């Protein structure tokens, strides 16, 4: 499975003494990078910006193509597992799918998925589905071959910033601004599983069959490790000063990386079944919004509100390339 994460819109963090619920989008910068990922086949880098542009870079970060969506911000961009298509979301509530087989940005399909801002999106690992999340408190799931909506998940407590598919496409996993976690059967034959994990908003949730774990990035600065079957918290650890936007495993699930509002990338490894800090680097000037492994797990790409995209050696967290995405 290609392990991915991307991010995100910057959400203002309230004082920890108050519950972070129904937070609204704040802090957008036109030149900010809110999405960046590797194509798993070509290793090209795709970027979404605060001014509504999608940028296509070669693996050595030479700009090849650019496209502006109808209304900015581009909140997410993400590639299909076969490397042939890209899905993106924007502030206009649409989900966009792009044909990228010729290493160009060719519009392929779009769907008005949300009545308010679209936030994140992804292809399922088996490429059966495409999902998007929104400020209208829904997850909308399309049957990818038929391009038809087959399922909607609704949150009663605030935005849904992120969703994730199980590795066999049988479940959709999502968390909301009310600190709630849901695991829903795609067939609808089983009732949803639900747990109250925190009183603060979640920006990211990812799963690992290999570890039987879920990892959740939270506005309270913590990463939560949750048992996949029982939805019980196994560990909660402080990861960043301010909100955590992404927590994700490398492709072989030996390390967990996180990013946050403090501009740091941090790597965590298990020691006697407890995650401990292995390495940290100040990666961007201010908020880091997106983080993504390449398919081999040897590199990470990050993007921040400072407008920079950077490629890192994933073993040592050393920057090996970077580009200022501002188009002059």
Short synopsis of the structure:
This protein is mainly β. The chain contains no helices and 28 strands. It has a single domain (33-324), classed as YVTN repeat-like/Quinoprotein amine dehydrogenase (Methylamine Dehydrogenase, Chain H).
Structure description:
The chain has one domain: YVTN repeat-like/Quinoprotein amine dehydrogenase (Methylamine Dehydrogenase, Chain H, 7 Propeller), CATH 2.130.10. The chain has 328 residues and is mostly beta strands. It has strands at 33-38, 45-49, 53-57, 63-68, 74-79, 85-90, 94-99, 106-112, 118-123, 129-134, 138-143, 148-154, 160-165, 171-176, 180-185, 193-196, 202-208, 213-218, 222-227, 233-238, 244-249, 256-260, 264-271, 274-282, 288-293, 299-304, 308-313, 318-324. The strands form 7 sheets. Strands 1-2-3-4 form a 4-stranded antiparallel sheet, with no helix packed on it. The protein has a 4-stranded antiparallel sheet with strand order 5-6-7-8, with no helix packed on it.
Topology:
Blueprint (H helix, E strand, L loop, with lengths): L32 E6 L6 E5 L3 E5 L5 E6 L5 E6 L5 E6 L3 E6 L6 E7 L5 E6 L5 E6 L3 E6 L4 E7 L5 E6 L5 E6 L3 E6 L7 E4 L5 E7 L4 E6 L3 E6 L5 E6 L5 E6 L6 E5 L3 E8 L2 E9 L5 E6 L5 E6 L3 E6 L4 E7 L4
Antiparallel strand pairs: 1-2, 2-3, 3-4, 5-6, 6-7, 7-8, 9-10, 10-11, 11-12, 13-14, 14-15, 15-16, 17-18, 18-19, 19-20, 21-22, 22-23, 23-24, 25-26, 26-27, 27-28
